[in-house]
Amino acid sequence: MQPRLQDIANELGVSAATVSNALTGRGRVSPALRDRIRATALAMEYRPSPQARALRTGRSGVIGLVLPDLSNPLFPAIAQAVESAAAAAGFGVLIADSRGDTGTQTDALRRLERQGADGIVLVPRRGTRLMAMDLPVAVIDTASTPGNTAASDHRGGGALAVAHLADLGHRHLLFLGESRQSLVQSDRIAGMRAALTPQMQAETLWLEDGGDIAATRATGIIATSDLHALTALTTLHRSGRRVPDDVSVIGFDDHAFGRAITPALTTVAQDTQAIAGAAIASLAAQLGGAPAPHERIFPMTLTRRGSTAPAPNPNTET
Amino acid sequence: MQPRLQDIANELGVSAATVSNALTGRGRVSPALRDRIRATALAMEYRPSPQARALRTGRSGVIGLVLPDLSNPLFPAIAQAVESAAAAAGFGVLIADSRGDTGTQTDALRRLERQGADGIVLVPRRGTRLMAMDLPVAVIDTASTPGNTAASDHRGGGALAVAHLADLGHRHLLFLGESRQSLVQSDRIAGMRAALTPQMQAETLWLEDGGDIAATRATGIIATSDLHALTALTTLHRSGRRVPDDVSVIGFDDHAFGRAITPALTTVAQDTQAIAGAAIASLAAQLGGAPAPHERIFPMTLTRRGSTAPAPNPNTET
DNA sequence: CTGTTAGCGCATTCAT
DNA sequence: ATGAATGCGCTAACAG
Prior knowledge:
2 copies of one chain form a homodimer. Chain A is of the alpha/beta class and 318 residues long. Chain A has 3 domains: 5-48, 434 Repressor (Amino-terminal Domain) (Orthogonal Bundle), CATH 1.10.260; 62-152 and 272-297, Response regulator (Rossmann fold); 154-270, Rossmann fold (3-Layer(aba) Sandwich). Chain A has helices at 5-12, 16-24, 31-43, 50-57, 74-88, 102-114, 154-167, 183-195, 226-238, 257-260, 272-287, 314-317, and strands at residues 62-67, 92-97, 119-122, 137-141, 150-152, 172-177, 201-206, 220-223, 248-252, 266-269, 296-298, 301-303. In chain A, helix 1 (5-12) crosses helix 2 (16-24), helix 2 (16-24) crosses helix 3 (31-43) and helix 5 (74-88) crosses helix 11. At the A-B interface, helix 4, helix 5, strand 2, helix 6 and helix 9 of A face helix 4, helix 5, strand 2, helix 6 and helix 9 of B. Strand 2 (92-97) of chain A pairs antiparallel with strand 2 of chain B, so a sheet runs across the interface. Chain A binds a DNA duplex (16 and 16 nucleotides) through helix 2 and helix 4.
């Protein structure tokens, strides 16, 4: 049997309350006694019961993380960052994958609440309307999302990608998205459009509409995710265009496979650490009784790799 | 304030114990009363306190999941499967990423224990030696791992890949691994070797040793993961070889990007659902007082896609 | 500075 | 079939 607070109190002939005070450091205990208590606690391999503590304090020390879909390469990075930020703040992380419709997402939220989460980090599915919960919630999505807590500057990221291609002399671009419904994708593409210089032109291809990537005459392609960049890259190869010699390709989110391929993928990455940290900080603040902090937006950064190069000689183009 | 068991008891003029019996269905309560209690509980939006229940029963209803590295494309699939199997069995899932050395893995295990997990699903890092824990643990790794609970038949998976290429007339293969230390990779390659027919020959390239994939004269490449298959695919393209016309490529684990590329990747997949289900079932059994069930091994399946085709005409080869 | 008392919300005896 | 009493292990008040 695990030793309880009382056991170590008996061992030293003090009261359980004093042991609690000594161990948590909250009440006042003489330094000498405190050290003796800590020493014997260690010796007896005392582990406080999280359930008892949770019942007493009303805090489980666990937060819930709701993700749209772990099998989408974008989200594990966020999960990892949230887990590490939470661990640093002393929280455990309960995951819930809301795979499927927004209904499962609601179920997931309820389940986490039932399981005693102190707060929730939510990466919402497209078109979610946040229901009222009596738990603190931090939302990670985009600046365009009402109620958002922390997000990347997706428009700025789009602009970064266009600026990079502009610097390399590209004039004719293709923007590649999957779904118009995704706020993240729309924001990224809006940022791209806004950053076009007067000499540049761009078309947008939404994969949900169908359409042939290889048919483009653009010399630069910016996809809203590494996954679609990969599709573009391999489709181009297949049709005999070389990357980056003939066409440059940029992705988003710096997924592991972008470094596994040849040429490695130039990509625009989120500062997932910072975002996760802000989300956790927001929850911690709310749990501390403070009002929810303002939304925080973090810049994205472009990592140049082998998939982008100067535009080919215009002679061939025109 | 949330209603407690007592509140709903007062409402109906019965005792809290009866309400508890009615709601959990364990004690004996007259059907009529039971239904009335359930109805008012619903009406009052009663939610049992997980912390109180946990303290009383000694069970938190939460299991821990320890993964080596969420950013490695292999693991999110497992996480998703475990989460879904756990949810089906009424468990929540606390994640811990043991990113870094085996020391962090030990920390992760301790943290989950401290946080009140009832049991643990562990996907161990290479070379882990499982420490004794006083929690039930289910290990997902390979049949070669001592103490393993559920795993894929990685050798069988390797054999499947070789058989597929043999059927297509390939005689000269290249096996691509990353690290000899990985039991999973070693098992897969061992299975490949064992399945070679007398007419076939194969070389093995470990990426940790360096070496040039494009230098091979093999007409079929089997990588121990989709990620390395992707490296092979793009490297071959780069050096002017066509996939699958000149060289066929097979990966492992059926990651999302394998379907995003052109040609789509033929791959050997694990039955993650079954494995996760077995792991959860093992924990549930142990929590129920039963001994840990025997190890269970699940077959892998090959999904044929565009990256494999009949071997090119031998004339060009010899 | 330390000990005593009380109770968090629930599930389980054991009476009735 | 139902109710009263008890305690899971801990911490927050207050008393000494």
